[in-house]
Amino acid sequence: MAWAFYVEHYTNTTQACRDNKYTWRHANGSIFIGTGEDAGNDAEPLGIFYPRGATLGGSTQVNGMCFTLPPDSQWDELATLTGDSSWNSTRHGFDGYIHPGLRDVLGSVYEALGQSKPNSTADLINRVGRDMNRLDPTRYDHSDLYTMVIDQNADHVRTGARDYIIDTLQATYANGSRRYPGLTISTQSFATKVLFANKTTGPARPRATGVEYILKLSGIGPREELEQHNIPVVVDLPAVGQNLQDTYEGGITVEAAQDFTTLFTNCTFGNPGDPCLAEFQLNHTGPYTIGSAWAALLFRSSVATTPDTDIYAYGASASIFSGFYEGYAEAQAPPSTFWWSLVKMRPQGRGSVTLRSADPFDTPVINFDYFANEGGVHDLQALTDAVEFLLPAMNNTAGGYAPFTIIAPEPSVSIEQGIKDFAFGHHCTGTCAMGPANSSSSCVDSQLRVLGVDGLRVVDASVFQEAMGAFPVLPTFMLSQKAAGVILGDL
């Protein structure tokens, strides 16, 4: 269901190899995951595992189902950037399991936020259960705790693009005839380039007549890079592949002085005889109805560039999430574990995607260039602020759970270095950014039309000039609905 990409987080190879999630391949073909110091002399560096969905529905079928609206201000900024007011911001509760240890941890975070501790589990549920996606332009304007919103139906089953596609494909009229008989879905195809008419001669602009894969392989991109790979240039468009960004995640992992209560005690995580899986399949109840994490924190760092909070933290106990590597889904942690993943919204750092070759089956060179230059320094400070807020707050936890033993960021180095060694991401956006047609940083206009050609639009998260909110799924769904109206309006 997933296509295995490997990416680089850093241009600095020394820093890159400090990550214990780095993947290496030995001369005998075996894979090693760990730091460069432990990899061995014959190890070939592959990079950081970065799986992408390779099934109907794409990555919405393999993601963590985090479903969060971005701040309204980001849509308004997009409208200002493009001069197109149609992008302005004009336009769902909690019934989860709160165990005593989680109540104590979140109570200490409330105190650190300057709020009173919840006086009961019912009070905590009421407070964290406010809708993070409520239609309220002030929902990001102060630090506060919520419950994570996830994208699932009433049976606690993942929903996403696949469901919409299948529903559309199977739609019928009252008489049973297909509503869209011309719609075909090919799941065993691999696109290689975009086909153009008027490609090389005459005054007419190139016009797309079919799609076989990405822009650069089709001759749309920076001229120098295309010519390096002997790809005929259709349009010299420097912005393609630039502006790569990710909502970095820097993590906190601690072990409490005593175990947390957990619903997962009897679960075998999909192995034969798993009682939790049997309960879910039979009744859609039990531990496997729980999403990525219970708790979500909006936090404003000292370097936030707008009045909005700029850190989204989500966390849970008796489990662990520390990023992607082969086998990450099987990772387990002691029941005394608590973790927070700290997502940097509005990241300032930028990377790039460049061609490795002209072979469409050859994965590109993807380098996020974490924490580089002034923008990266800003991002690192924001994540450091969040760590420095949460660690003392957690050590004030009642109920016998404190003091906590810090696992990550690595306590033997500075917080900043620990974040750099640990950071990860899986929400790449921005490499075909929307903007004014006369800007060298623009790839598409406000109607999502690729600049310099006719008949070709891009409708995915690559068009966002800035990563939208903490997670790209809901903003991308909103983008697709907007694009449908734009395209139908042109017919």
Automatic annotation (TrEMBL):
<dbReference type="InterPro" id="IPR007867">
    <property type="entry name" value="GMC_OxRtase_C"/>
</dbReference>
<dbReference type="InterPro" id="IPR012132">
    <property type="entry name" value="GMC_OxRdtase"/>
</dbReference>
<dbReference type="InterPro" id="IPR036188">
    <property type="entry name" value="FAD/NAD-bd_sf"/>
</dbReference>
<protein>
    <recommendedName>
        <fullName>Glucose-methanol-choline oxidoreductase C-terminal domain-containing protein</fullName>
    </recommendedName>
</protein>
<feature type="domain" description="Glucose-methanol-choline oxidoreductase C-terminal">
    <location>
        <begin position="347"/>
        <end position="479"/>
    </location>
</feature>
<comment type="similarity">
    <text>Belongs to the GMC oxidoreductase family.</text>
</comment>
<dbReference type="Pfam" id="PF05199">
    <property type="entry name" value="GMC_oxred_C"/>
</dbReference>
